[in-house]
Amino acid sequence: MSAQSLVGRRLAEVVGSWHLYGSATPAGPLDVWLIDDRGAATCLTTGSDWCLIVEASKPHADYDMGDSGRVIVGTIGEETPFADHVGENVLEAREEHVPNTGRVALELTFPTGRVRCESWAGDLRLTSV
């Protein structure tokens, strides 16, 4: 989907998924879903070619991967920079692309700041800018 379609949407909730393996502390979220005030969900995740995927999809359920651990899904509190912008409208969406991969970063501007989403070595990285 076009990231420009996020402009004008009010962020109502942020949901994430994490890979849990044994007693290790999970790293940043695997996927993040931005849910607007109308209930539309946009998933931000990374592809196998290290691109940044932005697609319309609802959060999935938790699932077990046997010996490889499990993936849990839930509302994100303060774990991502998006938490600071719940209740705010997206004012601008700016994408970055590279040859042979496509979109590798998305920067969303809110009234009180910006959040940069990028594929970093195949992992989803979210930062306040």
Describe the SSE topology:
Blueprint: E1 11-20, E2 31-36, E3 41-46, E4 52-56, E5 63-64, E6 70-75, E7 92-98, E8 102-110, E9 113-120, E10 123-128
Antiparallel strand pairs: 1-2, 1-6, 2-3, 3-4, 5-6, 7-8, 8-9, 9-10
Task: Provide keyphrases for this structure.
129 residues, 6-stranded antiparallel sheet, 4-stranded antiparallel sheet, 0% helix
Please describe what this structure looks like:
- The protein has one domain (3-128).
- It has strands at residues 11-20, 31-36, 41-46, 52-56, 63-64, 70-75, 92-98, 102-110, 113-120, 123-128.
- The chain has no helices and 10 strands.
- 0% of the residues lie in helices and 50% in strands.
- A hairpin with a 2-residue loop joins strand 8 and strand 9 (113-120).
- With 129 residues, the chain is mostly beta strands.
Summarize the structure.
The chain has 129 residues and is mainly β. It is built from no helices and 10 strands.
Which band does the percent of strand residues land in? over 45%
Number of strands: 10
Please tell me the overall pLDDT. 93
Q: Structural class, please?
A: mainly beta
Radius of gyration: 14 Å
State the domain count: 1
